[in-house]
Amino acid sequence: MSEPHIPVLLDEVISALQPAPDTIIVDATFGAGGYTRRLLDSGATVHAFDRDPDAIAAATGNPGKWPELREEPPRLVLHARRFSEMVAGMAEAGISRVDGVAMDIGVSSMQLDQPERGFAFAADGPLDMRMAQEGQTAADFLNQADEAEIADVLYHYGEERQSRRVARAIVAARPLSTTGQLANVVRKALGHRPGAPKDPATRSFQAIRIHVNGELDELEQGLQAAESLLKSGGRLAVVSFHSLEDRIVKRFLRDASKAAGLASRHLPQMPSAFEPTFANVSKAVRPSEREAAANPRSRSATLRSATRTSAPAREREAA
Question: Quick one: pLDDT at residue 110?
Fold first, then answer.
């Protein structure tokens, strides 16, 4: 049986992290464990985070695949929590500094391929989209929010230029309960032509999923957590899948490597006395033609990596 998820830019991520025996690496987005498997095979100890209980349950229920869970001490430790909470999670494990952090942002192939999770419209399913399987569903949001709020989400998180038209159509079609219903409403609103290279519903699904899961705030908080957790010389590797995510990662590493302080998002950027917290920031790395052909979902991936300096983590002001 084939793996349910093909890790993207695997060789490049492992090269960026340089795992070795006796190193401690955080896999911030465990999923099916593609990165974790290679990290463990290198001799590293891995602390893997995932807010999706299905991912954690799949690993704990498969001891043959993950014998490191039962080593003494275990070389694989699973944390059923958000990666923005990695500092607290590692503190509970008695660890204050780590040698590397890997982050593979966004929805996983397993989530996309399960219609009952409601992340995609390839097969009809309930309009859910919750990674942690708790809290507000996509249906809750779309059926309760006003038209202006829905339009803002579609515009800012899906870069949907006709967000108002789509939001108006969604409100008119309420209540919505399935992914198929939502996809058809969006297609009708945008005048979808069968056979077009990209389904116009894709942007709206991305936007709603990001909103329901608070993904961009989670990414920003996760990057800050990695800065706090990495030791001097520790390595950060982040794979993102669309421009909104990549922009956040690129800006974070630019600011961190130029000693620009991070203040409130609502205030102008101010000069800072902080020393650079990251160095050796890589250029964007993208999949080879061979990888993109073998794994079409990798085509939009971008890897950025950097090395932690000895400077103290930057303090953040409340937004």
Answer: 60
Q: pLDDT tens digit string along 158-175?
A: 999 999 999 999 999 999
Domain boundaries 116-213, CATH class:
mainly alpha
Assessment of whether the complete model's pTM goes beyond 0.70: yes
Rg (CA), the chain: 20
Question: What tokens were used for 43?
Answer: 């001799």
- Nearest partner of 315 among 280, 279, 275, judged by Cα: 275
Hey, where are the domains in the chain? Answer: 10-109+215-308, 116-213
Q: Distances in Å between the alpha carbon of 144 and those of 95, 119, 172, 266?
A: 43, 19, 12, 28
Greatest distance between any 2 Cα atoms in the chain: 59
Q: Mind spelling out the 3-state secondary structure of the chain?
A: CCCCCCCCCHHHHHHHHCCCCCCEEEECCCCCCHHHHHHHHCCCEEEEECCCHHHHHHHHCCCCCCHHHHCCCCCEEEECCCHHHHHHHHHHCCCCCEEEEEEECCCCHHHHCCHHHCCCCCCCCECCCCCCCCCCCHHHHHHHCCHHHHHHHHHHHHCCCCHHHHHHHHHHHCCCCEHHHHHHHHHHHHCCCCCCCCCCHHHHHHHHHHHHHCHHHHHHHHHHHHHHHEEEEEEEEEEECCHHHHHHHHHHHHHHHCCCCCCCCCCCCCCCCCCCCEECCCCCECCCHHHHHHCHHHCCCEEEEEEECCCCCCCCCCC
- Tokens representing 70? 């039962």
User: What does CATH list as the number for 10-109+215-308?
Assistant: 3.40.50.150
Query: Tens of pLDDT along 18-37?
Result: 999 999 999 999 999 999 99
